[in-house]
Every structure is written in C-alpha cells, then in structure tokens.
Amino acid sequence: MDKTLSNFARISLALMASTVCLAARAGDHFADDRIAVAKAAIEHAEQAGGPEAAPVAMASARDKLVLAETASKNHDDKPAAAWADQANIDAQVAEATAAQVRASKAALEFDASLQALRQEASRGSQPQ
Amino acid sequence: MNTKLITAISLALTMGACASVPLNNLALENARSAVRAAEADPNVSTYDELDLHTARSELDTAEAAAAARDERGIDQPAYLAMQTAQLAQLKASARANDARVAAGRADRDRILLNARTREVNSALLQRDQATLARDQATQEASISDAARNQATQQSAALQAELDALKARPTDRGLVLTLGDVMFDTGRAQLNPGGVRKLDQLVQFLTDHPERQVEIDGYTDSVGTDAYNLDLSQRRADSVKYVLVTRGIDSMRIVTRGYGKEYGVASNSDSGGRQLNRRVEIVIGGVDGAPVAGRIS
Q1: ipTM of this predicted structure
Q2: B166-283 — its CATH code?
Q3: CB < 8 Å to A99, chain B
Q4: pTM
C-alpha cells in the first residue's frame, strides 16, 4: 500500500513538473512561434511572385513582421502575436494573388490555344 | 491603421451613447462584406470551403467581441476574417482556372488524337493509292514487256523462217530462187527436190496470209525467144500450181515469164547458163500490196 502510494505520488510529481515545464516553454515562445510562421509565409510568398503580383499586401506583411519582432523584443507577447498573425495572412494573400494571376493567365492562353486547335482541326477535316 | 483607429474610436464614442446597440466599426464592416462576397462566390464553395470556414469563425469572434462591447477585441479577428475571406476567393479562383485547364486538356488531347487519326488514315490512304498505282505501273510494265517479248519473238521467228527459206531481201521484196536443178531439163515440171523446197514457202505463206507473191520464170539465151518465154512462163505457172494445191489462195499469186531477160550470169558458159535458168519467187510486204513488177 505504501509502495503504491509512493508510486502514485511520484507519477503525479513527474506530471506536474512536465506541465510546469511546458507552460513555461509555451510562455517563452508564445509570440516567437507565430513570428516564425509569419516569416516563413513571407519568404514563401516572396519566392512565389508575391512582390510582383501584390506589392501592397507584401509590404504590409513585412511592416507587420517588423512590428511583431519589435513587440516581441519588448516582451509584449500579445501584440507581437497579433502583428505576426496579420503579417502571415497578408503574405498568404500576396502569394494567393500571384497564384491567381498565373492561373488566370494560363487559362486564357490555354483557351486561345484550344480555340486555335479547334479551328485547325475543323479546317483539317473539311477537305477530307 | 490610423483611419481605422480613428473610425473605431469615433464609432465607440457614438455607440457609447446608445448601449443597447451592438458595437460596430469599419474593420467589422469590411470583414462582414468580405465574408459575404466569399460566400456568394460559387468557386469558393467548390474549391476552398476550408478558408471560408476559418474566415467565418474569425468573423464570429469579432461579432462576439462587438456584442460584448469589447472594442479592442474586434479589430484583430475582423482583419483576419476579411483577409482570410479574400484568400478563399483567390485560392478558389486559381483552382477553378486550373480545373478548367485540366478539363480543356482532355478536349485538346481528344482533338489532337482525332487530328492524328485523320493524318494516319490519310497517310494510309495515300500509301494504299501509291501502292495501287505502283502495282498498276508494274503490271503495265510487265504487259508491255510481254508485248515487246512477243514482238521480239515474232520478229525472231520470222527471221528464222526467212533464213530457212534462204530468201534474200531485194528492192522488190524477199526473193527466193529455185535453181535449174529443181526442174527436169527442158521441162516445166518440178522435181521432188523442188517440191520439198516449196514446203517451207507454203508454210511461210500460210503463216502470213497478208503477203502477196509474184513468181517469175527465167531461161538462158539458148533457143528461140518464143520458146524461152513460153518455158519461163510454164515453169512459173508450175510453181503456182504446187502452191495452190497446198492451199495458198491463187488470188495472192501472180506469175510472169521473162524468157532470157534479166540473166544473173553470163550465158557464154554452162555454169552461167545454169544460174540463169531459174524461177524467182518474190514475197510482198506485210502491207499486203502486190509485188512491184520488174522495170525493163
């Protein structure tokens, strides 16, 4: 009985310790993780043609990332996370704009080529 | 951001007057219209429900903050709702275009396949026609070869027959000479050697029914002219008789007696005189024209 109780106590202590540890860790990186996500989204958008297709959204994302980083340095975690989230969504919008422009252009070009092909095919079939 | 803050503040001040009305601001208004636009976009319901769902829940958060008159809690979720709704529309539009192109590729492939099939069929048809034409050409060539071979063979056969007759070509036609030895001395009757020699001529005339024949009799200068003319004529007639009894149409045959005229050798010696005693058979051409007479 003593042994069981001591075992239970040990497990409880371990669980408590790890919970405290996790909570402390989460508190430390509350904004940093969101900033990291925003950074990654901005980099991805920059490589995907975001600056060309949506310069305003791209600039907004970068400005907000700076605000987030500044707030994080001042240990203002909540506004840092908020700015980071906005920077993230702006970067995603920029990237999606670039993708939308590309897809739209490709579709128009494809329509034109298909139209040309149809005319070619109907012309080719007529003399037969 | 400044204008939004000012708007939010002024809205907050305005709303503060009537507490029963939920708090409202521009960010929330923008978020609502963005979410409504995304909801009305048919592409979004087909291609990006997930982002629309996220936008709605951010909008709900913003609405809840507004309802709770938590002014500072509105802007962030409202902004995220607006941007996420826009993101949903952008992604949906891109996916819709991609899908249209993908569907169009199937169309394009079908058109290309049809065109290719037509090309192949056309090529096959042309090849068949070419093969047919070549076969015809080959056939025609072989027919003309055969005709040429036949003509060559006929020509060779004629030559062989003429060689067998020992006929020699002259201005009047092919001339076959029956020498004096083919006749009994002083008589018109052909001896068996002469009859045998005529066998080949009969065969030739049977094979070539279009050819006319002139039979000319000649003598040496011994004896009277009247005798010699008569003998030469009778010898020519004797040859005609043999040909007619062998089935040659008498209408094809003309006979003449020239007597001592047109000697081929001197009458001063017996050898020359023997050569002059002869019957010449002149064979006409393929045109069936009568043999031209001797020019005196």
Answers
A1: 0.75
A2: 3.30.1330.60
A3: 90-91, 94
A4: 0.50
